[in-house]
Specification:
Helix content is 12%, strand content 23%. The protein is built from five helices and 18 strands. By secondary structure, the chain is an alpha+beta fold.
């Protein structure tokens, strides 16, 4: 018995098992996962209750999932070979099933499928919230059905992908399918920038706003990456050039650019980007303390906690800050909160939630994994 990575699916052979060549041998073994679910919905009424659909709403029928990922640890163990596969009898049977030397055989490449964007036929990738097995997400799929199941998983993890994806043969993709766990070129930024965050938008694009230019000056330029075309384009500029600032996604899909510093001083101002209109709007109120190198974390109630960083302190040059503030997007108002117990340049020691990481190398090129 031997094991190899396969996606599962339907396997076809010649009619009545008759082959024109006696030198054709195919041997495969699969790990099967059987799931018994006595609570599977059998009627629209049951389906609505299980999906918690409000009365009067119509829910799309999703159907049971037909294939399941085997645990990475389990499958890796199968790949490494079990005691049964190493037994002398198993080896003898393997030789009988594969009587020809590798140099005397021909491997026929089968058609595979990819999930791609309808707009460009470029390969799509699992949304960041989608759990990935330990072996990495599959780049291509052995069967149409498996690829369609993967597409359904993509849409379930990110409903914004609804209607934007389809399944096509890998040979029809606009570019060669990516290899899992590797990097590929993503083109050049319109303006070289460093020390800046990458911010995913609700429309699927990626925003880069501001940052540090090649000469060390703060930038007002922005750039947008379109994954459906693997291309960068210039975006609307910030009202104020800033570096060492934060960009934070708000609950309504807008993006808050906050603080940072100009060429000479820290900033207390903020501005908001609306992906729908493609415009930046300066906020009427500023932070109580100008700061840069801080953290900005969206809380569960939608407010943004800003903590730490560096700024001007009484009687001295810029230093680490212990202060923290809350921004309410609903009112555009700021409120001071209890400071941290210790000053922190990044505010990462005590501020809970997602913390942005910055890219310190200066480069105009971009790559994706």
């Amino acid at each position: 018995m031997s094991y190899e990575t396969q996606d599962a699916g339907l396997e076809l052979t010649a009619a009545s098992g008759t082959l024109a060549s006696a030198r054709v041998v195919r041997r495969s073994a699969r790990y099967e996962l059987h799931i018994i679910d006595s609570g599977t919905a059998t009627s629209p009424a049951v389906a609505r209750r299980r999906l918690a659909v409000p009365n009067g709403a119509v829910a799309a029928a999703t159907g049971p999932k037909r294939f399941h990922n085997v645990s990475g640890a389990v499958f890796d163990e199968l790949l490494s070979g079990s005691s049964t596969s190493r037994a002398a009898l198993s080896k003898r049977q393997a030789r009988l099933r594969q009587p020809f030397a590798t140099t005397d055989t021909v491997r026929v490449t089968e058609q595979r499928f990819v999930v791609a964007y309808v707009k460009s036929n470029r390969q799509a990738f699992p949304p960041g919230s989608l759990g990935r097995p330990s072996r990495g997400a599959a780049a291509t799929f052995r069967s149409l059905t498996t690829a369609q199941d993967a597409l359904a998983d993509f849409v379930e993890a990110d409903p914004g992908l609804t209607g934007r994806l389809h399944v096509i043969p890998a040979s029809e993709a606009a570019a060669s399918p990516a290899v899992p766990g590797t990097w590929s070129d993503a083109g050049l930024l319109p303006v070289p920038a460093s020390e800046v965050d990458l911010m995913p938008l609700t429309n699927g694009r990626i925003l880069i706003a501001g940052g540090t230019g090649p000469a060390g000056a703060p930038l007002a330029a922005t750039a947008l990456f379109d994954p459906t075309a693997d291309a960068w384009s210039s975006g609307p500029p910030l009202a104020t050039g800033r570096r060492l600032h934060t960009t934070t996604s708000l609950a309504d899909g807008r993006v808050l650019a906050l603080g940072g510093r100009t060429a000479t001083a820290p900033l207390a101002t903020a501005e908001v980007f609306d992906p729908a209109s493609g415009t930046w709007t300066p906020m009427p109120a500023s932070m109580g303390t100008a700061r840069y190198g801080h953290s900005a974390t969206r809380l569960k109630d939608g407010r943004v906690l800003v903590a730490g960083g560096s700024g001007v302190r009484t009687g001295q040059d810029d230093g680490a800050l212990a202060s923290a503030e809350l921004f309410d997007p609903a009112t555009s108002a700021w409120a001071a909160v209890t400071p941290m117990t210790d000053a922190a340049r990044s505010g990462r020691d005590e501020a809970e939630g997602r913390v942005h990481s910055r890219h310190h190398g200066r480069s105009r090129s971009a790559r994706v994994a």
